[in-house]
Structure formats: C-alpha cells, structure tokens
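dude i think i finally got it to work??
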Amino acid sequence: SKATVSVLYWEFKLIMIRSIVAAATAAATLLSQPSEGYYVPQYQEIKLERGKGEPVWVNSLTSQKALVPIGFYSLGMFPEPEKIVGETSSAMNMGMLFSGDRLQSSVYEVVVLKNEKCVTAGSVTAPQNTLIGIENAIKAEYRVNMAISGMQAVHQSPPNTLDCYGHHEHARGFPLGCSQGDEHRINNHIDLIISYNIHKVTKQEKLAAKGKKKKPTYYITDFKIVSSDGSKACDNPIVNTKRWKGVSKDIKFTYSVTWVRDNTTVWANRWDRYIDELVNDSADTDTDTERQSLLTCIIIVICLTILVAMIVMRTLHLDFNRYNNPDNDEELQEEVGWKLVHGDVFRPPPYPNLFSLIVGTGAQLLGMALSIASAAVLGIFYPGARGKVVGYIIGLFCVMAFLNGFVTGRLQMAFGQRNWKTVILGALAFPSLVFLLWVVTEIALSSAGASNSVGIVTVFQLVMVWWGVSLPLVAAGAAFSYKQEPINHPLSYRNKEREIKTYSWVFTTPAQLLLPSIVIFTMALIELKLIFGALWQGRVLHLFGYLTATAILVAIVTAEVTIVCIYYQLVYEDWRWWWSSLIIPSGVGIYTFLFSVNYQVSILELSSKLALWIYYSMTFTLSIAFSLMCATIGFYSCWYFTCKIYSSIKID
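look at this
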C-alpha cells in the first residue's frame, strides 16, 4: 500500500543516515584515541624485598626465519641448574602449548637492588656436533627469551643502531649469536638492566600493620638485556665456532646486573612501557598508519552508503510516485528490471543444504571474531597474558557452534528443508580442515624436536572438546531453530522458472568473485599488514581500538558492495542472487592469500620447508575464515535488502 511504501522509504533513509553518523562518530572518537594499548593488568603485585634473591626464568628459543621454537636447553650450550624446574604441561594453557611458551629455571639469579659485575653463570663443554647445532641456530637467527617477576625481557641495542639480525633498538629476546660471513660468534655475556619502583602502602595495609613499621617492598617495571660476544672486563673470551671446528671447547657464560630506579611507571601500566619499547620509533608511525587506514575506511563507507541510499531512495520514491500517479507513462517504464523477477527472486537456490552449511560456518566464525575483538578492546590480551588468545579462540569457536547450528537450521527451514546430516557436516567441515592441517604440522614439528610439539594427550583433549562440546552445541542450535516458526518471504515464487534473457560477463562467477572484493580487500589491507607483522615478525599488536573500528567498517563496506552488485544483477533480470551474495564478498579470501604470498616473498626470510609449510597452512586457514565471514555478511545484508524492496511493490 501507499502507507507501506512511505514507511519503508523513511525507514531506509533513517538507516543510511545512521550509517553515515556511525562512521563520523568512529572517526571523532577513535582518531583521538592514544597510542597506548588498553589492557587489564595483573591485579596482584609481585612484591620484592631488598637483598632477597629473585630467579631469572628462561623460555624457548624462537626464530622468525625458522618459525620452530626449540627448548632452551635442547642445544646443549647453556649451563644447567642442579634441578630444572619449569611449567608442566598440565599447568599450561593451549596457547602456551601451541607456541612452545614454557618457562624454566636457569643458573641466572639476581639479588634485589644489588648491582653485580661479571657474575659467572657457568661453563659448558661443547663437542663438535653441539657447535654445528649452535651454528645452524645462529644462522636461523634464534633469540633467547628470559623473564623476571612476570616481566618479559626486551633486548636493547645501542641507540639508532640495528642488532646483528637487523632488528631495531628494542626487540623481544636477545640474539643467540651473530654471523659475519663464515664466522658465527656466540653471545655469551649479557647485561641485565632491571627497572623498579617502590610499592606505595595502601590504607588497608596500614590498618593491617597496626602501627608497626614494615620494610619497603619493590616491584619490577622493566627488564632489558644487552648482549655481547664475550667480555674483556669479565675475562670472558669471544666464542667463534669457525675457529673451533673439529675440537671440543668450553663456553663460559657471564652476566652483570644493574638496578635502575623508575619513579614514573606504576604496576598498573608497566606493560605500556613494554609496548612502547617494542614498537620504538615505529610507534608514532603505526598510530599514524592506523589513523590513515581508519580515515580511508570511513571515506569509502560514506561514499558507498550514499550510493546505496540513492539506489534505495530512488527505487522506493518511484514506487511512492507511482501510487500517487498511476497513469504516468514515465513511471510505467520502470516496470522492467528487478520488479519483473518478483516471481523468482525468492526461489530456493541450488544445493540449499550446502548453502546453509556455508552461512552457518561463517556465522560461527563471525561470532567468535566479534567476541575476540570485544575481549581485546577490554584489554584481556595484554602482553603478559601468555597463550590467552589461542585459548579464547578455541573456546569461543566451540561455544559459537550453537550459532552455527541455529543459522543452518533457520536457513534450511526458509528453503523448505530439514536435514540433520547437513547440520552435522557443518559442525565437521571447517574444523576438520583445520585439524588435518594441524596434525600434519604437528607430525613435522615432532620430528624436528620443536618445543611447541604437543603430545597425544593434548590431541585427545582437543578431539574431546570438539566432539564433546562443539557437536552437541551445533545439534542443540539446530534443534532450537527447528522449533521456531519458518521464515516467510514477502513474495512467493512461481512453479516455472523465469528465463534469463539478458546476460552479461559481469555476472559470471569469476567476475563476481574477483572484481567487487577488491574494494573490501583494500579496506582491510593496512590492518592485514599489522596483523601479519604481529604473527610473523614478533611485533606487538596493541591498537585494538583502531583494529576493531576498521573491522566494523570493513563489514559495512562488505554489506554495501554486495548490495550494490546484487541490485544491478536484479536490474538485468537475473534472479539467481543467492549464491552471488556469497561469491561476491568471498573473493577477499583469494586476495588475502595472494597478499600472504607477496608478504612471504618480499618481507619474510623463511629458512626451511617446514617454516614455509607452517606459514602457508596458517595463512590458507585465515584466508578461508576471512572469506566465510565476509560471505555471511554479504548474504544477510542482501537478504534483508531484497526482502525490504520486494515487500514494497504492488503485485496485481
């Protein structure tokens, strides 16, 4: 009716205005966001007393070229304590297991507030095979990771210089050694620079003390390491493996300790300093890059929103005028194009069960991504939260299986289907791919002796979580959806399919897959660079506010690009829009994988076939996940769009 069209007209107008206002609000709010990361720090201070010993913990050796962490003591080059105490597998979360993040005790120990020079950590006799292993590790640019009082070590090079691996002034862990031509020298002397602050006594602590004086306590705010190949001052000679080939030699390890008072950093924001040191000179650059990316996204969103608004406003406005002027010849000419396919536009797509499965999996991934982004903005993933990200991803993916089952079931009912096999297959399809790639990687890591190789117990635990949590939740979601009222479309479809008379190459599957998704990929490109830098180059991903805002804008652009493409497909009287709404945005996965190939060739220097397998298996999985999420956004936006515009037309 006339009233219905009028209401729809103003409803769409309000939606488009809200989209523009949301983009402008994001610009005003997030562009003023400071560069520091937001996080929930450790609530309980680790208090230290003057004169008491504090152990220095060691972690796995890591490399950005090999991508395979190895145990600290596995090379046989470091002196070992009488008893190695470390984190057991049962006390580690999934993320720590998968990354090989395992703290162990060491021979390094400091005395609180006591500066020390040339402390001998110990000596190790290295046979020929050990020297060869050390050489290979130095070539692969392995780094030594340490921690004290929960604070991870940052390597510090002289100002405005790069270390022997080409890293900036600050980087995670210190180099195992340095290579100069055929010579490989071991960094067997380190300077530990520990910053500290005095704990301020709270009112509660004063009341609990009952007037008694207590010794002041301290906490560590920063932990830096300066490494060197030998030390003349400490009578520690340079260890050059080339000169020692064919013989066994003793390697002496020494260290010095310097305590530095830090009155500006408190316990609550000590990780801010850690982040600032790691991003170093690139901190402002990263912030500027994020802001430019966000501004670009906002401009594209506003332009696309205006375009979609013009299409919808024109369509509904013409309908409104036609009701006012039914004899207008100009308006009668508009009775072509998308209006003529009203009898076929809601015809179920081919392979409706497969269609439902894809959208259900995408909805599960979207729910997981949204939850992860929310947790990141709230600050749960601060740098000291070891392994939390992977644990949250696994847990949230399993929980969101309910959403997978519900969406799959609702779409099946909309298509007149009810197939439990499809529901179960939807619970198995994407996880099976990930599990298969992970098992192959795990076998390779185990044969290479990697520290992040998990045992059969962990594999069994994952399978139990998958089958014991994910599958039942998928079934529960589908069962719940089957009890709901079926979705009714505004129009029914004819028994006989309408012939598609006009056909253009633009609407072919390759064109729809590759052309529109360029816009979506361009929106996400800068954020992808930052994410890849965090995954593969050891950088800190800390501007979660910008990242989340950009992700929201990418979702809006995905919806609008898909709506525009589907609208023109309907204008050309091609009513087969269901699969097109998935294909158009899913091409972004292809560009993401191509980007990963270019990133590996131009930036990364992976040193082995195993490293290449780890890299490409993970980026392949990420590309598919990104594709499925964008496809789900594109479909639901187009479904809403078609239902709205076809509910406004008058069918005689």
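The chain is about 50% helix and 10% strand.
im so relieved honestly
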